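Q: What does the predicted 3D structure of Vacuolar proton pump subunit H look like?
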Amino acid sequence: MLTANSKRARLFHDTSLANEDTYEPFLRLLWKGNWFIQEKSCKILSLIVSGRPKAQDALIANGASKSKEFTTIDNVLKGLVEWLCAQLKKPSHPSRGIPTAINCLATLLKEPVVRSSFVQSDGVKLLVPLISPASTQQSIQLLYEACLSVWLLSYYEPAIEYLGTSRSLPRLIEVVKGSTKEKVVRVVVLTLRNLLQKGTYGALMIDLGLPQLVQSLKAQAWSDEDLLEALTQLEEGLKDNIKKLSSFDKYKQEVLLGHLDWSPMHKDPIFWRENITNFEENDFQILRVLITILDTSTDPRTLAVACFDISQFIQYHPAGRIIVTDLKAKERVMKLLNHENAEVTKNALLCIQRLFLGAKYASFLQA
């Protein structure tokens, strides 16, 4: 007995369904008629081209000459992409336009021609806004298919460059944080695994706190073996990236994680002299995080190191006192002078002394 899939496969082996006369009416109807006709035409076309035999495609990839049939398929796929991008920009139907487009896109992006056409049509920037935490069943399915599309694009180098210039990575991480749907988490983790070794993605993932998120995900009870394997691979890849980071990158990662310890760089004068200007990045982001830690952390070691590092910044940066004062750090450090932990009070006192004395006399003070 033939299954539905086997029947469809046998149907598409009929070469009469792969000629121009088959596709042309559906392509025309994509742009005409009411929404029902447009939607059905899109889905029928997607089924025909995705279910066609791929043997000829493989021959062409291996150097055979392009046939008229294959050229027709390329044109059909490009026409479909044009319509899908139009729907993502301005949907023909208020509630069905975008879900239909994403559903078909998730099927068609397996095709190299579709990936190329989609990127050339600037489709990535239309796709990225759809990557956001979802709650209803319908929105979860839309999110899943949008993430599935990004996963398929993560195998295509030009698309990876486009994804890198968008906010796709922070959005993917936010989706993983807020999603309990296993299929959504799986496809996002697989995407992150693909992107990890590309360009600056690894460093950015570390900055966004992905190592800790992966540890949290691994502690959950997932049933999907592919997801568990991908999490392990992602964790190992992130560890390798951390090892490759420069000393300031490592320091930055430590601060952003909010867990500080007396690693050698904190008290190394060479580290501070060579990297003090790096603290100016992103409007003194790392210094601001250090100051925030004074308010938010309950770990005595972290508080002590944060106080010491702020005092180091005061000593080594030409405008250290002014910048730290402007960021209202003095009041926060003063509160720690009465901390129950001696290590915290010692380094809080050092920070206050350097803040009052300034760089000229700070070198006389010893930690």
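A (community wiki): The structure tokens above were generated from the sequence. The chain is about 70% helix and 0% strand. Residues 1-18, 55-70 have pLDDT under 50 and may be disordered.
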